[in-house]
Amino acid sequence: MAHVEHVEAQPAGSAWAAVAPAARGLICGGIGFAIGAGLVALLRIANGHSAWSLELSFVVGYAFGLPGWLAGVGVWETWAGEWIGRRVKTEGVQGWQRYFAFTTDHKVIGVQYLVTFLVLFLLAGLMAMVIRVQLLEPEQPLLSDDTYNRVMSLHGIIMVAVAVASVIGGFGNYFVPIMIGAKDVAFPRLNALTFWLVPPVAVLLLAAQAVGGWDSGWTAYPPLSVRNASGQIFFTMAIITFGLSSILSGLNFLVTVTHLRAPGMTWGRLPIFVWSVIAASILAFTFTQFFAAAMLMITLDRIAGFSFFNADKGGAPLLYQHIFWFYSHPAVYIFVLPGFGITLEVLAHFSRKPLFAYRWAVGGLLGIVVLSGVVWAHHMFVSGMPTWLHAPFLVSTEVISVPTGFVFLSALGTIWMGRIWLRTPMLFALGVIFNFMIGGITGIFLADVPTDINLNATYFVVAHFHYTIIGGEIFALFAGIYYWFPKITGRMYNEKLGQLHFWIMMATFNLTFLPMFYPGLHGMNRRIATYTPELQGINVFISIMAFVMGASFLIFVGNMIYSLVWGPKAAADPWHARTLEWQISSPPPVENFHAIPVVSGSAYDYGVPGAPPHAVMAIAGGSGEPGQ
Predict the structure, then answer these.
(1) What is the CA angle 602-575-333, rounded to 5?
(2) Cα distance between residue 337 and residue 343, in whole Å
(3) Least confident of 7-21, 179-193, 237-251
(4) Strand 598-599 and strand 615-616: pairing?
(5) Pick from 11, 113, 340, 581: CA 20 to 30 A from residue 458's CA?
(6) pLDDT tens-digit profile of 327-371?
(7) What is the pLDDT of residues 265-313, one digit of tens each?
């Protein structure tokens, strides 16, 4: 049995405690990269080639460097060392420095995810502003066509990463264990590892620009992705790494909810946000490896001479698209299902009504999971795939709107005749309903073969996709930030600034993307830096609205920073909610509960005569084992 060594807490003002994990990780990662690249050099020299081949040397070096990075940031001293009988350390860093450390506290990991992806979100948003500057004129000299494509590609993949991990990684990690009455996730050290796989992903995507970037969009279709600049290989390594993080995170959530629920927390008493995380975790665990496999195939085509997609050499040109979309359409639901969970959570608490049709909402979330794996080819109606496949995928894509409708009916039924409390979280949750409705309605046209053939690859698709992801998930992300900010920080945000942020963002979001359907209907192609002059007027209007929407996030950032430092202290339950996270202090204690609570009723029985409390907080030292 391995020995565990307790480490004295670092002084609160020690800056070295903050930078040391990353510094060790960079050193160890650099050593690992040098070993891998050195082995390639030796083999190439032995075979009469030059020592360095950018793509091959980088891929092998990265395969050695990534374990080195993980070992350096904390995997070795807190986990892997015990595999060979060495002493491992427990938590040793306290204070603000712990947010830069390899920690097993699920709440700290949740904050690490949330802050990291908010920064990436703002960075990708700046790229969106550059794109809209370019589109102010039909032939804008700001960016060359190639540079525009690289900026668009980087913007797209960062936003996709934000959509995948911001809610489930941030709020899922922080609140799912608390909401089910657990002290942590099932695999705390694995949880820490999933976060520390993320920084290399961001570094790779940004560093790719130094070697030409990539111009194939976030979809990376071959043959372009097999022939373009070497930045594409950085992209493939980043996606494989991010996929590993997503798979392990999904597994951890599934095991946590299955085995660590508090006494009385039956499946029928789980908060709806927990159900949404379960649904997204099933998808992440089941489908993500297909995206990674597609990236591996591109990598082997580039560095090893394989021909997976080259028909002249026996490859299948459409194989990539089938594999890619087999993951990437379920990925849309990895984006939005946790957003639905936040939305329903907020609607119930701020309507002061039981969540309407709770079981149907859960069934809707799980129904989406089941059907999401049989709709992928509606993205391929113009690809040249056999026409007999059109009808089945048209039907399956239309059918998935049925379980989605269950979720919407639950939302509408919850607010109907409710005592609605229009605070900032509620405003964003209501915004989700309106925005995703437009995304859903416009999605019907892209599911039907005749209209999709005409609208494919136009700005109609761009508008639809942004209504789905930003309107559905990112608005829900902000609902969650404002809802849980008092719990995470122990302070209240400025409500007037929060509402100002919502109204500007809501108005300008719709004034940006609703008009975007018009140029799409008139043939304006996405992912292209130019357009016909008659569409300049509408593009100028869209760009101006986008700039104002971008400015609204300055209000958000200012509000969060000011409130974090100077905001009034928050009560344990400022929203008078019933779920478990609001029954403990703000911020929560290290292990969440002094003793495991006993769940005795629904989380949403507002106004129900004789309804028991959701949970009875157990006395420290009492019994109560998780699982039910």
Answers:
(1) 65
(2) 10
(3) 7-21
(4) antiparallel
(5) 340
(6) 999 999 999 999 999 999 999 999 999 999 999 999 999 999 999
(7) 999 999 999 999 999 999 999 999 999 999 999 999 999 999 999 988 9
Contact 36, 61 (CB under 8 A): yes
Cis peptide before 587 (omega within 30 of 0): yes
User: Rounded to an integer, what distance in angstroms lies between the CA atom of residue 461 and that of residue 379?
Assistant: 11
CB contact burial 281-316 (16+ within 10 A = b; e otherwise): bbbbbbbbbbbbebbbbbbbbbbeebebbeeeeebe
Q: Maximum CA pair distance of the chain?
A: 83
Strands 4-5 and 88-89, sheet pairing: parallel
Provide the token pair at 360: 């149907």
Q: How many whole angstroms separate alpha carbon 77 and alpha carbon 136? A: 53
Tokens 């986990």 locate to 79
Assess whether pLDDT exceeds 90 at residue 20.
Answer: no
pLDDT tops 90 at residue 618: no
pLDDT score at 54: 94
Give the C-alpha separation, 363 to 357, whole Å.
Answer: 10
How remote is the C-alpha of 396 from its chain's centroid?
Answer: 25
**Distance from C-alpha of 21 to C-alpha of 625, rounded to nearest angstrom:** 35
- CA atoms of 175 and 48, how far apart (whole Å): 57
**b/e map of 115-144 (b: 16 or more CB within 10 Å)?**
ebbbebbebbbebbbbbbebbebeeeeebe
Distance of CA 247 to the CA centre of its chain: 13
Tell me which amino acid residue 37 is. A
pLDDT digits (tens, 9 = 90+) for 48-96: 999 999 999 999 999 999 999 999 999 998 888 888 888 877 766 678 8
Q: Is 199 exposed, middle or buried (0-12, 13-18, 19+ CB in 10 A)?
A: middle
Q: Using CA atoms, how far apart are residues 445 and 482, in angstroms rounded to an integer? A: 34
Q: What is the spatial distance between Cα 573 and Cα 576, in angstroms, rounded to a whole number? A: 5
Q: What percent of the chain has pLDDT over 70?
A: 95
The helix/strand/coil state of 85 is coil
Contact status, residue 35 vs residue 14, Cβ threshold 8 Å = no
Q: Which bin fits 261, alpha (ψ -120 to 50), beta or left (φ > 0)?
A: beta
pLDDT band at 543 (very low <50, low <70, confident <90, very high): very high
Q: What is the DSSP letter of 218?
A: T
What is the per-residue pLDDT for 14?
67
The per-type count for the chain, helices as H runs and strands as E runs, is 22, 4
Q: How many angstroms separate the CA atoms of 130 and 458, rounded?
A: 19
pTM: 0.94
Q: Which residues of 474-502 are buried (b: 16+ CB within 10 A; e: fewer)?
A: bbbbbbbbbbbbbbbbbbbbbeebbbbbb
Of the listed ranges 14-23, 30-39, 574-583, the one predicted with least confidence:
14-23
**Is residue 508 classed as helix, strand or coil in its secondary structure?**
helix
What are the structure tokens assigned to 125, written together? 């948003």
Q: Which two tokens stand for residue 329?
A: 């359409």
Q: 478 is written with which tokens?
A: 């902000």
* Rg of the chain on CA atoms, in Å: 25
Distance CA(291)–CA(163), nearest Å, equals 16
| Cβ neighbours of residue 304 closer than 8 Å, sequence gap 6 or more | none
Residue 9: which pLDDT band, with cuts at 50, 70 and 90? very low
Q: Cα separation of 360 and 333, whole Å? A: 18
Tokens of 599: 């769940």
